[in-house]
Amino acid sequence: MIKYMLDCPNAHRFESWFQSGTAFDDLHKRGLVTCPDCGSADVSKAIMAPSVKTAKRAAMVEKLQALRAEVEANSDYVGRDFVQQARAMHLGELPERAIHGEAKLAEAKALIDEGVPVLPLPFIPKAKTN
Fold first, then answer.
1. How far apart are CA 77 and CA 125, in angstroms?
2. What does the pLDDT profile of the chain (130 residues) look like in tens digits?
């Protein structure tokens, strides 16, 4: 069995279970998957996070904690000054050093567009100090 989150063109979102991905495709092609709110058969799969089993999740959390410890041990936390400092180092206005901090999505995208070598990290700061 597989669960999909589905969207219809009328902005309704719903979930439904299917015997398999192939079963969904077959039912969808035949117009048998419909929105429970409006009846539209023009539905599509929405983006969903994969289901992660507990043991795999625990291993993933452990690896993320180890990554966080490595980053914190080998770089300076600059908080909300991250964007300004990363850009200044890239432009040669500040000496290069390893830093980590916070940036809004648009700010991070702008750094990447400018060629600043940054990488989003998959964790939230423990405490905001800046």
1. 9
2. 888 999 999 999 999 999 998 999 999 999 999 999 999 999 999 887 766 667 787 888 889 889 999 999 999 999 999 999 999 999 999 999 999 999 999 999 999 999 999 998 887 656 555 4
Name residue 119's amino acid. L
**This model's pTM is above 0.85:** no
- Give me the residue spans of the domains in the chain: 2-45, 54-113
Assigned token pair, 117:
């070598």
CB 24 within 8 A of CB 4: yes
Q: What dihedral do alpha carbons 120, 128, 76, 116 form, nearest 10°?
A: 30
